[in-house]
Predict the 3D structure of the following.
Amino acid sequence: MSESLPQRIQRIGLIGGGQLGRMTVQAAARLGLDCVVLDPTPGSPAGQLAARQIEADCHNVDKIRELASQCDIITYELEDIHVDVLDELEQQGHRIAPSAQVLRTIQDKLRQKRFFQTHGIPSAEFMPIDAVALSSFAAFGFPLVQKTCRGGYDGRGVCIMHSPDDFAHHLSAPSFVERFIPASQEIAVLVARNQRGECATYPPVEMGFKPGHNILDILLAPANISDQLAESAVQIAEKTVDALQGVGLFGVEMFIDPDNRILVNEVAPRTHNSGHHTIEANITDQFEQHLRAIIGLPLGSTKTLSPAAMLNLLGAPDQSGRAVVRGLAEALAIPGVCLHLYGKKETYPQRKMGHVTILDENLADAAHKAHQVRDLIEIGVADPEGQ
């Protein structure tokens, strides 16, 4: 099958209509492409901008088939998808990118860990468990991390246990345990790979997580690591995506341990929260790069235009309902602040409602401004008087 872009405009089928999908639809419009989104939420963030939205769950096989019938290629912005129907569609000649096999490998985290082991990709030691029992965990040894095989994201499906006393908080789902890594830093590398095996890789970024929630809070680009570590991280990320034979944009999350060893934590077969800054800070942003990779356009330059800090805008604690944004004007008065709101009408605690990228010639100054923005903007609900 030819990889080159057809003369007619391609229609992209996008499974998942969240913020990643929304920014992919925006990038598609710049390339003259339109999108059909499949998502169960009426007026989803991506569906607001797409040519059409099919309102259906990502496990609805009939609606996924309908999506394929209307589009030239299918991609996705999340992993929790009925993968068997994607496999079936590929066998019928439909284009899926990344492939059903890649998704099958990644969406089951135990399968993903075994893939790392098979291909010599450095990762934390792990052990499958047949039954969630204190004796099994103790046999592996504390401290450890319990991870569910399916469905975890943004800290869900992960339980850190420093001692047997923490077993009371265990997860009651098919899972495995892995060695707890006292990471000195957490970084991510974005890799785009096309059907010819060509890669375009972004410089590593450093991730700071919201305490107690394991949700990305502030990101710094580039990461504050040595050139040698950065080069090693890029090599490991490219090796990982090559081993997967992936086509598209991949987010490779990594730990740097106290001995400066780089260990791969997880891989996302899609655009990634750690790449939002690329919209302003790099020549080609991750969303356009993903589309270039899957439809056969040349991969774009990943050159950094400016140091950047990125801040997730999360729903305020203890507030649920129709969203109200406070402090917006004050935040936008800070030089270098670039705002992205995702069009979500309802907020709840810790929901990702938007992000802010701050550009500055000095990364420390960008980080300082990010903290200022975090103190200024609150996404909550109106008070009883509607203020």
Notes: Residues 125-179 form a domain with the Dna Ligase; domain 1 fold (CATH 3.30.1490.20).
